[in-house]
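ugh ok fine here u go
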Amino acid sequence: MKIRMGSGDKAFLTFVYIVLIIIAVICIYPLVLTITTSFSDEKLLAQHGFRLIPLQWSLDTYNYVSSMKVRG
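structure:
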Protein backbone atom coordinates (compact mmCIF):
# COMPACT_ATOMS: atom_id res chain seq x y z
CA MET A 1 0.00 0.00 0.00
CA LYS A 2 1.55 3.28 -1.14
CA ILE A 3 0.86 6.59 0.48
CA ARG A 4 0.22 9.26 -2.10
CA MET A 5 1.57 12.72 -1.52
CA GLY A 6 -0.34 15.79 -2.54
CA SER A 7 1.18 18.74 -4.32
CA GLY A 8 1.51 20.62 -1.00
CA ASP A 9 3.45 17.73 0.51
CA LYS A 10 5.77 17.57 -2.49
CA ALA A 11 6.38 21.33 -2.33
CA PHE A 12 7.14 21.13 1.39
CA LEU A 13 9.50 18.19 0.90
CA THR A 14 11.29 20.05 -1.91
CA PHE A 15 11.66 23.09 0.36
CA VAL A 16 13.08 20.94 3.16
CA TYR A 17 15.60 19.33 0.79
CA ILE A 18 16.72 22.73 -0.49
CA VAL A 19 17.19 24.03 3.06
CA LEU A 20 19.18 20.92 4.03
CA ILE A 21 21.40 21.27 0.97
CA ILE A 22 22.08 24.92 1.83
CA ILE A 23 22.94 24.00 5.42
CA ALA A 24 25.25 21.22 4.20
CA VAL A 25 27.09 23.60 1.87
CA ILE A 26 27.46 26.16 4.67
CA CYS A 27 28.96 23.46 6.92
CA ILE A 28 31.24 21.88 4.32
CA TYR A 29 32.58 25.10 2.73
CA PRO A 30 34.92 26.08 5.64
CA LEU A 31 36.38 22.56 5.73
CA VAL A 32 37.10 22.57 1.99
CA LEU A 33 38.52 26.11 2.21
CA THR A 34 40.84 25.06 5.04
CA ILE A 35 42.11 22.03 3.13
CA THR A 36 42.69 23.91 -0.12
CA THR A 37 44.35 26.77 1.76
CA SER A 38 46.82 24.32 3.27
CA PHE A 39 47.91 23.46 -0.29
CA SER A 40 48.24 27.13 -1.34
CA ASP A 41 51.45 29.07 -1.81
CA GLU A 42 52.00 31.33 1.22
CA LYS A 43 53.05 34.41 -0.77
CA LEU A 44 50.11 34.23 -3.14
CA LEU A 45 47.80 33.65 -0.21
CA ALA A 46 49.07 36.85 1.42
CA GLN A 47 48.68 38.82 -1.83
CA HIS A 48 45.33 37.51 -3.07
CA GLY A 49 43.65 36.18 0.06
CA PHE A 50 41.77 32.93 0.51
CA ARG A 51 40.43 31.17 -2.58
CA LEU A 52 38.53 27.94 -2.95
CA ILE A 53 40.88 26.89 -5.76
CA PRO A 54 44.46 28.08 -5.18
CA LEU A 55 46.29 30.03 -7.87
CA GLN A 56 49.38 27.90 -7.28
CA TRP A 57 49.52 24.57 -5.47
CA SER A 58 52.29 24.01 -2.95
CA LEU A 59 53.30 21.39 -0.42
CA ASP A 60 55.52 23.79 1.55
CA THR A 61 53.20 23.73 4.56
CA TYR A 62 53.35 19.96 4.79
CA ASN A 63 57.11 19.92 4.22
CA TYR A 64 57.51 22.41 7.07
CA VAL A 65 55.33 20.37 9.45
CA SER A 66 57.07 17.11 8.58
CA SER A 67 60.52 18.67 9.13
CA MET A 68 59.69 19.87 12.66
CA LYS A 69 61.28 17.96 15.49
CA VAL A 70 59.03 16.61 18.19
CA ARG A 71 59.98 17.44 21.75
CA GLY A 72 59.37 14.63 24.10
